[in-house]
Amino acid sequence: VAKALYASLDKIADGVFLTRDLVSEPSNAVYPETLAQQAFALTELGVKVDILDEKQIKKLGMGALLGVAQGSVHAPRLVTLRWQGDIGAKDAPPVCFVGKGVTFDSGGISIKPSSGMEKMKYDMAGAAAVIGAVKALAGRKAKANVVGVVGIVENMPSGTAQRPGD
Fold first, then answer.
1. Which H helix or E strand runs over 102?
2. What is the CB-side half-sphere exposure of residue 51 using CA atoms within 13 A?
3. Handedness of CA 91, 19, 149, 41 (dihedral sign)
4. Is beta strand 77-84 parallel, antiparallel or unpaired with respect to 145-155?
5. What local confidence, expressed as pLDDT, does residue 21 receive?
6. Sign of dihedral through CA atoms 77, 132, 94, 83?
């Protein structure tokens, strides 16, 4: 009986578990490139995934995203996920989700206080929630058209980091 009741919810649980796992991993395991790879894995469910690299982001003039990332050894990514589950409403505007994906936010040059610094890995929870939600929708073959967008960066101090006033 429990198995039958759970069957309709298992794909939602998959999305929730992915979100939980991404947020729980340490920052040396989840950084812009690896988070983008997790999003790309959704292509197996029929999600169209586009990943812009640093060169493409620069060409589009996304200076804020580049500025936050410029102190990190990990290049930024911009990921777009598209689930086209309602073919009949192909031209209707999709539901859109946008998630912040700062995989670690040290504060850059304006470094944050050490108290609570270990929690700065959670600044990517919005991006993880978007990726998990799209996984749940695609896994259930939801009759919806959805677009998810996540900007993914790591904010670290270095000689190339953005300075206050730049």
1. strand 95-105
2. 18
3. negative
4. antiparallel
5. 97
6. positive
